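Support request from a user on the community tier.

User writes: "When I paste my structure tokens into the form, the page sometimes reloads and wipes my input. The last time it worked, I copied everything first. Here is what I submitted, just in case something in the input itself triggers the reload:"
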């Protein structure tokens, strides 16, 4: 009638209960570890992507070589900025760049000249001075030199610059890097046909 439980049976039941708790803890730890590993992998890939984009914004800049202006009487009606890659910069396609012109008459945004863009808004032209390959708008070598040309016609483009006036251009490349160049027209243009700005 009475059932007696021996010490060995009690130990067996306690051992099975402990085993079940242990297995449950291992499963929870494994799931938590999987979530942490996935999250760490995701964060690592995001941080690498962000780091590469930030690096491009800092390094894919242009460097000014020289800026000159064409003189028409007492004003500059054409500005030519010669640029190259900044040290450490990668490939820079000038056809994808936008330029903010900040001058005495106000601010304008210029895009690379194509037939469609030239008829609808302010534009700039480019030409190769020294080019290591056949691509006419891409700086992809430290020896490449390109002219960025501004026709100051006061119709769709900025106004001509008078004596003593200054302007600032901000060249924004496709990677998000910005190069700022400031130049000033000499106080007296005299009988000159061209000046360095």
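"...and here is what came back when it finally went through:"
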């Amino acid at each position: 009638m009475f059932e007696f439980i021996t010490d060995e049976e009690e130990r067996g039941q306690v051992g099975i209960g402990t085993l079940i708790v242990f297995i449950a803890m291992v499963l929870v730890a494994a799931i938590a570890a999987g979530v942490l590993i996935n999250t760490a992998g995701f964060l690592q890939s995001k941080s690498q992507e962000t780091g590469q984009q930030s690096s491009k914004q800092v390094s894919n800049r242009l460097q000014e070589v020289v800026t000159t202006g064409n003189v028409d009487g007492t004003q500059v009606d054409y500005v030519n900025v010669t640029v190259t890659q900044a040290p450490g910069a990668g490939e820079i396609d000038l056809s994808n760049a936008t330029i903010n012109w900040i001058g005495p008459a106000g601010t304008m945004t210029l895009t690379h000249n194509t037939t469609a863009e030239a008829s609808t808004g302010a534009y700039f032209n480019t030409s190769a001075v020294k080019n290591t390959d056949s691509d006419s708008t891409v700086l992809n070598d430290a020896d490449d030199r390109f002219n960025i040309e501004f026709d100051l016609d006061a119709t769709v483009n900025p106004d001509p610059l008078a004596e003593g006036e200054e302007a600032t251009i901000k060249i924004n490349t496709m990677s998000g890097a910005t190069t700022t160049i400031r130049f000033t027209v000499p106080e007296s243009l005299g009988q000159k046909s061209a000046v360095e700005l």
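Agent notes: The reload is a front-end session timeout and is unrelated to the input. DSSP finds two helices and twelve strands in the chain. Helices lie at 7-59, 115-120. Escalated to web team.
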